[in-house]
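ok so dumb question maybe but i'm new to this and my supervisor (M.) told me to 'just get the structure for Low molecular weight phosphatase family protein' and walked off. so i did the thing. is this what she meant?? sequence i used:
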Amino acid sequence: MKILFICTHNRCRSILAEAICNYYGGGLIQAISAGSSPAGHVHPLTLKTLIALNIPTENLTSQSWDSFEDTDIDYVITVCDKAANEACPVWFGKAKQVHWGLADPSAIEVSEESSEESSEESSEESSEEAINAAFSHTVEILQRRITQIKTWVQQELDADELCKRIQALASDT
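this is what came out, is it supposed to look like this??
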């Protein structure tokens, strides 16, 4: 099974999904990722998070979905709401399209109130902890979902049933 994970900028959530899927997919699932408007670089905290989990990062790049025009894809999974609302290229063809809305862990901001009440150093630590927690939460969700998909692929479910189940995973938060 081949999955294309899509996020607008292809620098955080879709990259995490690709790397985690390839790592936990056990060779049964091949993942790639792309964006409709790629940033051109992978977010540094995405790489840091994956490295901390010993998940390979060597081949991860922020790229356009046009890079995969000639690739046979079984599923296109959007992981951000903006990408889910964009017109997808016609070349996605027969690929089943699924949306998993995930919060962007790189967009976490610490409120001004909390930073006014604490020292600058303490505020920076709180901000870093919040961002790390957001990345960890996103990784945990993706690990659970992808592990479940792998189980279903091993069970050789028919395509329609598998698609329903993959879509239902969107509610796993």
